[in-house]
Design goal:
With 271 residues, the chain is mainly alpha-helical. It has one domain. It has a two-stranded antiparallel ribbon. Helix 3 runs parallel beside helix 10, helix 6 packs parallel to helix 10 and helix 9 packs antiparallel against helix 10. The chain is elongated. The C terminus is likely disordered.
């Protein structure tokens, strides 16, 4: 059964980032300085500017999808690749014993609509190349949908530092109006720089990491769908279940090898 679960790592990461910043300020300057970093005007400039830029950049339909895209950041789907491979091995076994038409009755136990669609295409006797083209077209469409949702956070990450700088420039202009009082220069300069701080934190702690996470989730889903396509083609072409199992298992082994290589490269770079 496919279920999306709450991804606890996203809020933990945000909380750790904010806590680290607050702790650094508190240990060096005390609680009074922590309160100084909370400036309503800076918040309004950064958030208002980002919102305005996004409304200009994207259509109303794309902006309406933002809440749904945001929910996906806090959810994850655990893909059991071994179970997926077992499903296609069972379908292949039944197809070889009873024929492709018998697979239609077996789809009652399959919840993934992508698998159901592929198997139904195979049952209808469509050529393997055409099946692959149809299913890959759906994968490409999915990637484009995800890209549009991810692009909102990516653009927000680009706009946030710029609007932080705008707030700083406004603060500097106001500061220059009070040059006759040198005692106010330091506090006013600090207040002006807080807006840039807000923009930088939002970009590097919220928007850009979220965009990267959504991209990774899309890559994972595309990888699973590639396994499904190969499984459907194998069932349709009447491959031996053992051969099909070995072929699909190669995806899992290759994925594991890539992760090991990435870990090895990271350790080498650290050394």
């Amino acid at each position: 059964m496919r279920m999306k679960k709450f991804d606890i790592l996203t809020p933990i990461g945000i909380l750790v980032g904010i806590s680290t910043l607050l702790f650094a300020v508190f240990t060096n300057a005390g609680m009074g300085s922590v309160v100084f970093f909370i400036q309503l005007a800076s918040f309004l400039i950064v958030f208002g500017g980002i919102a305005a830029a996004l409304l200009i950049n994207f259509s109303s339909q794309e902006m309406k999808a933002l809440p749904k895209v945001t929910r996906e950041v806090f959810r994850y789907e655990n893909h059991d690749l071994n179970q997926l491979i077992e499903t296609f091995v069972n379908l292949s076994t039944k197809a070889r014993r009873e024929g492709l038409l018998a697979l239609e009755a077996s789809l009652d136990d399959v919840e993934d609509p992508f698998i159901r669609k592929g198997v139904l295409l195979a049952v209808d006797g469509i050529e393997p190349d055409i099946i692959k083209d149809i299913m890959m077209a759906e994968v490409v469409a999915m990637e484009e949908r995800h890209k549009k949702g991810r692009l909102i956070f990516e653009k927000a990450g680009e706009y946030a530092p710029a609007w932080g700088m705008v707030g700083t420039l406004i603060g500097l202009v106001l500061m220059l109006q009070e040059l006759e009082d040198p005692a106010t220069l330091g506090p006013n300069m600090a207040l002006a720089l807080i807006t840039t701080l807000y923009g930088t934190i939002l970009a590097n702690l919220i928007f850009l990491p979220i965009s990267s996470k959504l991209e990774q989730k899309t890559d994972d889903e595309v990888f699973v769908k590639q396994i499904v396509i190969e499984g459907v083609i194998g069932v349709q072409s009447g491959q031996n279940p053992k051969i099909l199992e070995e072929k699909l298992s190669a995806f899992v082994r290759e994925s594991g090898r890539e992760e090991e290589l990435e870990e090895t490269e990271e350790l080498a770079n650290e050394a």
